[in-house]
Give the backbone structure.
Amino acid sequence: MNRTGMTDAAELLREHGIKPSHQRVLVLSYLMTHPEHPAADAIYRSLLPEMASLSKMTVYNTLEILRKAGLVRIVRIGDPEARYDVMTDDHGHFKCEICGGLSDFAVDMRPLVSDGLAGYEIRERNVYFKGICPGCLENKTE
């Protein structure tokens, strides 16, 4: 893991009032450098060689702390397992039905309002599409 990414992660944690423990910095740095929306288990397996004392519970607890602070958001598109996205601004997700990959795409969420929701307090908006990604389409035609 590159030292700059870890420094950026530590600073981001401090800015959000979170003590930058080594485990928290590792988890956030990992998310910042792996935009594929990993699940907690994948994060744990990837970081274990770097920190043998890391536990799954520490990863889950760290992800919950990051979620509550608004540093990550949970993405669930037909998966039983939550996946984590460090990009918290408004954007959409595309899930490939073949490889399971998640991709981000820009979307303007402002016009996504419904008259049927008058009186409701909207706290989150999600847009996602499912289909086949370009890589899987290419492999399919070969």
